[in-house]
Write a structure and sequence with these properties.
elongated; mainly beta; 5-stranded mixed sheet; 4-stranded antiparallel sheet; Immunoglobulin-like
């Protein structure tokens, strides 16, 4: 399956990713940047929590131009606060560059206790 794509302005600033977790959930997550072949993962942030009152927004890479064809990967262990039936989770990633929202990616599903979910996106230059 092909990766979703986000177009970056070559001469723009370094993009950022923000992870959001909805429906009163808590999560522990990691973000990595892989090369164009899906190899050589470089950690952007690891062992992060969404419940620590620290914004979950991180710059990706050192320049937009250097990100061409690289793959951004994020994964999270998401847990509910109680055992109520029929709960769902939302994991959202928002990619921005120079203060402009470029894309939003949502992963949703049912949750009983804890789920592990992940997503990827490939950067391409305009």
């Amino acid at each position: 399956m092909a990766h979703k794509r986000v177009s970056l302005k070559r001469d723009g600033g370094v993009p950022s990713v923000e992870l959001r977790f909805g429906n009163a959930l808590f999560a522990k997550y990691d973000i990595f940047l892989f090369d164009r072949n899906g190899m050589n993962p470089q950690p952007i942030k690891t062992n992060q929590l969404n419940s620590d009152n620290i914004p979950d927004i991180f710059e990706v890479g050192t320049s937009a131009a250097a990100l061409d064809q690289q793959i951004l990967f994020w994964q999270a262990a998401i847990s509910v606060l109680d055992n109520k039936p029929d709960q769902t989770y939302l994991m959202r990633a928002v990619i921005t560059q120079d203060g402009r929202e470029l894309a939003t990616f949502d992963k949703r599903g049912s949750i009983v206790n804890t789920v592990i979910d992940q997503d990827t996106v490939r950067f391409v230059l305009e």
